[in-house]
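Q: I have two molecules that I believe assemble together. Could you output structure tokens for the complex as a whole instead of separate predictions?
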Amino acid sequence: MPISSFERHRSLIMVLLNLTCGTIIWSSAQASREWAAECDEDYSECGGSNLPNSCDNTDGMISEINDSLSNWHHGWYFTGGNAWPQDWRDADTVSGGLDNPYMDAIGRGDLSVWSGHGTGAANEPNGRWEIAMGHRHDRACNTTSPDQMKFGEQASDGFGNNGDNEYVIMDASCSAIEGELDQVWENWGPGILMRSHQGLAFHDSPDDADDRLEEFIENIDDGDSNKTAWLDAGENCFLWWCDNSPMVITFGENEGDANDRHNNETMRSPRADAPSGWGGHYRWSFIDNGSC
Amino acid sequence: MDTQKYLVALLSGTFLALAACTPPEEKPPTQAHFTYHYKRPSELGPIPKEIRLALPSIAPEKALEQGEQKARRLADALGVKLDPQKLTRHVDTNNEIMTLRDDGYRFKIYARSGMVKFRDTKLYNRDLDEQKSLNVLDDETALKRANQMLDKLAIHGLVQSEQLLVNSARFSHNKARGNPGRLPNQTGRPKPGPIEVLDTRIFIPRAVDGLGVSGHGVRIAFDKRGEVTGLDLLWRDLEIDKSRQPLPVKLIMEEAIKRFQAELKAPIGAEVDVIANELVYFDPSMRDSVAFLEPGYLFVYLVKVPVEGRDEFRVSKVLHRLIPAVDHGMKQLPSPRKERLQKLRRKMELPRPQKISPVSNKEEKEEGGP
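A: Yes, here they are, computed for all two components at once.
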């Protein structure tokens, strides 16, 4: 039987195909990413005590990203009255929501960061959490999860299927409390991580440090996974004890994938493949120095 | 009416008339409510009446070099051999951080303070399958091992044993858990797996000359086998200034509390949880050089502001306020890092593109806020 030209060159074609696919996946992981950050220190308008170091914290992160993570670029940086609650609200399901152009924007918000106040309840867990802004915009001071925040939604997830975010940092009090992660962060809410890879937050009230986010990026640059870097940078010791309970929650296709991402995903080389939108599996780690 | 009664009546009348004319003292609106949770470590003696200044014993220009030497001594104390073939030494562009690392270990040196963090990069903060079936160290065993480690640090000149408040050690753990996500149309809530406790961490605080030093101490993380996976040597080299007379403490704790409460601009109705109030040597940052550590009353606190109509609060981060306790006439060194970051903010911060400002058509009531 005559051998076709295709079959004769099959091996060569397969090698070339593999090389092409490998290159696409590699370059996708190396591809440019953008960070979007918001912070507030002045709470005289919306209520709450002022936070003197809240924006120094994001400044330090940006400085360190500029110095050491060359694949990450400036998306947005809004501080004080320019940081709006609407920037975090899903544009397709919440009236006035602006996450599409801002914190979940394609080409802007692969990493989205809030540094400021959060909310807590007298009886936690109560199934909800809010970003608490310092300045009011369009009559709003807060943005709520699970009602208003959906990040990284794509394909047929719903909520407009137009998210792009991979990592969310909530450097704020009570932002990831054991017992309400399924509502605030997971797709049970459905909460923040619709197809975003990881949430980095706090199980208690962190201190108003001016260098936590800088330390986080330094750790990543030094070879840590996001999880190790966050747990390390998030725990801070002052006076007689270590008082922060940093939390990392990771979303994966299944349990194995969630564990793998949890332990190995790094912003040095972000995974190009988003986790599943529905279903999937979540894994979280935290340093237990107390809760809200 | 005799003269005496007349005078009494006159004075009383005058007083009543004056009282009626004087506007009642304005009562402040509902003030913040302060709750104090702090329990002083028993190892500390009574609050001193006089204090000597604590000064850094290493000049800022020598800090980087000294920091590296310290990291190498720490490696010796830990029994860690850095692989010379794979060792990299990196100093950041601002000369603030140096890292020494090979394939298995990392030493991070904060050049301005001389503090050092050690990490076993294959074990620290890792979920290790091979240790899954083991139990974590209990507090007693962890303390015993920590004491052995502290002895080694002291032998290598990295800490002074008498400054360690071993009986005030605090313990914590790295924990992990997971659960399946929600399938489309699925209702209810997931059942998470069991909480896995992965390591044991211990923090031993530092006191110098009878005063605690804020943020100083030794933190050690042990894996389940008892190996040291991480060690933070939060220890600036200090010397007590004996060239000057001790300085009298100008206010007592009760006065400091009054001043703290009077000066705190907490919103009306706020709940202020004071986590600690202690007379300390205050170290402003591990990333800055200092001329001295300010002796002062340190208040570590959290502010909760009720959200109207809900059983919820706006919760601050943990804040601190330092009230200086002595007059010393010295000036603290400026922070080049702070200056650098402020310049960066001005450069990176973006104005709002106003065209994207949403104008909601709906009549919505004001949301959020207290």
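A: One point stands out. The mean pLDDT of chain B is 88.
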